[in-house]
């Protein structure tokens, strides 16, 4: 799962020591913005758009230093962002003002590529303004994210090669109490307004926090950088920094997380709402509709998505039955699912073996990419385990983008918790989704595209990103995977999983389905383990609409591929098609469709010109 950043990011508090510098830099940015709005230097529309793009990058680095960590920008690494109620209101005002300025530009005076940049910047600002109608900031903690996970994640991403970078890590460790305090304010406000995640999904969150309160500070993932320090760093400096880290953990980190754990366990979780549907929140029906629209980049109604999901479930189920029959299994669909869920041959007994098998699949996938893609990324990737403190409630796997600027590879995180729920037959599809040709390939290519503005290199749209991940799974057959019936059934199980999402997400949040009804529907139609199913259903409950993006996007990619193949015939080149799809970064689906139709037309013109040149050669020329 990847997040989109523009005027929103991991919102964490700003440390007091940096407030003066922050205020001065913010004032400078506001003055720059005002000058662009007034067009003080009589710039062209193109020049103003570029000036705004540069300005909003600097704004993002100032307001969201954790985003700067993610993309490898060195600014602000000694502080968090500000997540106070005042700062949230201030940023909302910033968004409204930015939207008005961008709308004031003369779009028709821009070149074609600039118009696309303008349209995407405008759309992301409009989406941000739409989100302001709904108090999502009060949903600050759930089982998949929040201060108890984000802080540790960011600290592990921070560069740690010299004393200055270690001092930045120390500054952020010392800023943990304010991060927790601001989170507590949001949680308490949400509790008073009845805006919380459902209590059933929060059951493991207090323990997630407790898992961070390790006896030995240096066993904490938050202090991982201090365990293996650079050899070239003087020993005295290493000892000083380690001592300071241990002191920061005991004096700031431990008390802050102890307070958070107690509040969650004793107050927040017991009083959190018992309903699961987003429609049960204030303005919840409109809130869900907004999320559906933004996540899918379509105007599809939840009922239409629900019906599409049911249709896809029926189609995939028929393919599953064919695979079962071809496998020679003598039994019903239910018996085959039980076989896949319980037979020891399908499970590892050691977490290291599971990870090594994922790495082996990735190594087999890498050399096959050249058959399907003309352009490949430079950024490498690795396969690592989901951190122990979060693994119980975390999904089966996820991808975390890397950064060429920071010298950090992409990472495919595989969950090694409860090995008897991690079957071998799902591993090929999962690797192709999270690593290559899925998330790593698409996101790394996007980050390396030259000429794209920053918000397109590092942002995107969920329907494209997750739709591509699911589409990538379907490429496995062309890459030499899914050669045995169990792996093929695993691929279909993963496609079924995403079709089920269309049904249960809309079912729970819009159509009155219960949590148990969603779990039962999932179990009835897919062979995934019950633990995975429960984790997934709870994920859809706390991330309404996000799960719809996968199937909606995948179907669009398949539709466009078939249209290109049909219209180009023998001139269709799968490598060129994939390069065209990925060559502009993640786009709204209707924009992607327009660009691919333009690409098809250009390919037809090129083929026609080539044929014309071939048929009208000068006398004596050689064909």
Give an overview of the whole structure.
The protein is built from 24 helices and three strands. The protein is an all-alpha fold and 623 residues long. The protein folds into three domains: 1-134, no CATH class; 157-274; 289-550, no CATH class. The chain has a three-stranded mixed sheet, with helices on one face. α1 (19-38) runs antiparallel to α2 (45-63), α4 (85-103) runs antiparallel to α5 and α14 packs across α15. The radius of gyration is 25 Å and the shape is globular. It starts with 18 loop residues before the first helix and ends in an 8-residue tail after the last helix.
Overall morphology? globular
Number of DSSP helices? 24
The biggest sheet, with number of strands, parallel, antiparallel or mixed sense and barrel status, is: 3 strands, mixed
Residue runs with pLDDT of under 50 for 5 or more positions: 1-17, 616-623
Sequence of strands across the biggest β-sheet: 1-3-2
Radius of gyration: 25 Å
In short:
With 623 residues, the protein is mainly alpha-helical.
Labels describing this entry:
disordered C terminus; three-stranded mixed sheet; mainly alpha; 2% strand; 24 helices; 3 domains
List the helices and strands and how they pair.
Elements: H1 19-38, H2 45-63, H3 65-71, H4 85-103, H5 112-131, H6 147-157, H7 163-174, H8 176-193, H9 205-212, H10 235-271, H11 284-296, H12 302-327, H13 333-342, H14 351-365, E1 381-385, E2 397-400, E3 410-414, H15 427-434, H16 439-448, H17 454-457, H18 462-474, H19 485-510, H20 515-525, H21 530-542, H22 549-568, H23 574-582, H24 589-615
Parallel strand pairs: 1-3
Antiparallel strand pairs: 2-3
Helix pairs in contact: 1-2, 2-3, 4-5, 7-10, 8-10, 9-10, 12-19, 14-15, 15-18, 15-19, 18-22, 19-20, 20-21, 22-24
